[in-house]
Design brief:
Elements: H1 3-15, H2 28-47, H3 49-53, H4 62-87, H5 93-101, H6 119-139, H7 145-173, H8 177-196, H9 208-213, H10 221-238, E1 249-251, E2 256-258, H11 264-274, H12 278-291, H13 293-310
Antiparallel strand pairs: 1-2
Helix pairs in contact: 2-4, 4-7, 6-7, 6-8, 6-10
The chain binds 3-hydroxybutanoyl-coenzyme A.
Residues 36-37, 40-41, 44-45, 48, 75, 106, 108-109, 128-129, 132, 135, 196-200, 205-208, 211, 221, 271 line the site of 3-hydroxybutanoyl-coenzyme A.
């Protein structure tokens, strides 16, 4: 079958709402885009463990420590499902990890900001996991089978993370004036980075066209960002919090919460490696990889020995 015919059949399958599976024929660009996106997503889950892990030893009580520990552990699990989904496209885990550690692959910009107080743990759950869920419930319907299926479980767990964050935030919003101040400060620091998680505006998003054509993404970056703002502003108001945007206003006709201009200079600086914590995050992952080398080697040697004994 010639290439044009194969593409036609591939696109017809997508148009009919069928999933593309690893052994199906797919255009090279589809494979390339998926590897890029799924691996960046996996890296985000793994690097995303770092800002919160920072607070495990300093959680205010045992209950908080246990829930935070479980959440961080869930993120490791998400990373593993996603690396496995990426591997179905013909790339090895070692290559993917190498791309992260050598700075060739990106991970979400939001994890390059520091976590300065306990309130950040609540605000990350509420705002950052909240943004991730909006994006990922859409991606759970994406055309690539292994990615969409991995996201069904991930979204269930992310929903739980969002609830635990919102519960911390609700608790602090009803607390002492110092707690309220700490909470407001965390919201002020994480509001704009959470909007940046959705990526550049549609007119500056080079990958969206292809991804939407092949139904990997079903909504654009700006559409999802607006949905997130519409959902989150009333929650902030309910909690008695303000959002650090003087241009935020409700449009009665469109029912959208219109927001001010995102600082795209900051966004591009962060994704190019110049955010407040990029270097620290990369160093932490590189060290973890080195320190874990003996475990990987021992596991491989064991597997090899077992295989030899069985043959
Ligand atoms: N952080 C870092 N890089 C980003 C970014 C962000 N917030 N937004 C966009 N970029 C990068 C893109 O990766 C792309 O770079 P590349 O071409 O070198 O790969 C470039 O900026 C241009 O952006 P595009 O809009 O063209 O890129 P996409 O169409 O891929 O859209 C995306 C970006 C919305 C992040 C999309 O890739 C996506 O939905 N990815 C899957 C979900 C994901 O990775 N989420 C990250 C958060 S995971 C998480 O939050 C963990 C949870 O535990 C909280």
């Amino acid at each position: 079958m010639d290439e044009a015919k194969k593409i036609e059949e591939f696109e017809a399958k997508i148009a009919a709402g069928e999933k593309i599976e690893p052994k199906d024929w797919m255009p090279d660009r589809y494979r390339h885009q998926l590897i890029r996106m799924i691996s960046q997503h996996a890296h985000s889950e793994i690097v995303g463990m770092l800002p919160e892990a920072n607070w495990i030893t300093r959680a205010p009580n045992l209950k908080r420590k246990m829930t935070l520990l479980a959440k961080v552990q869930d993120e490791a699990g998400h990373g593993l499902y996603l690396y496995t989904a990426a591997e179905t496209l013909g790339i090895s885990r070692a290559e993917l990890v190498d791309q992260l550690l050598t700075g060739k692959a990106k991970y979400s910009s939001v994890f390059n900001y520091p976590t300065l107080t306990w309130a950040d743990m609540g605000v990350i759950g509420w705002l950052v996991d909240g943004a991730a869920i909006i994006n990922q419930t859409m991606l759970a319907k994406s055309s690539y089978g292994p990615y969409s299926r991995s996201l069904i479980r991930i979204c269930k767990e992310e929903n739980f993370h969002k609830k635990q964050g919102y519960e911390i935030v609700t608790h602090m919003a009803q607390g002492t004036s110092e707690q309220k101040e700490m909470l407001q400060d965390a919201v002020n620091r994480f509001w704009w980075p959470s909007l940046m998680m959705f990526g550049p505006s549609d007119k500056n998003s080079p990958n969206s066209g292809e991804l939407m054509k092949w139904k990997v993404k079903l909504k654009s970056n700006d559409e999802l960002r607006q949905r997130y703002v519409n959902m989150t502003v009333p929650q902030a108001h309910f909690l008695g919090l303000t959002l650090p945007d003087d241009d935020l206003k409700h449009n009665k006709e469109t029912e959208n919460w219109e927001f001010g201009e995102i600082d795209w200079k900051e966004f591009y600086a962060v994704i190019k490696g110049n955010g407040p914590c990029n270097k620290e995050r990369m160093r932490a992952r590189q060290n973890a990889h080195e320190e874990g080398r003996w475990v990987r080697e021992a596991a491989l040697a064991y597997a090899h020995k077992k295989k030899k004994a069985a043959s």
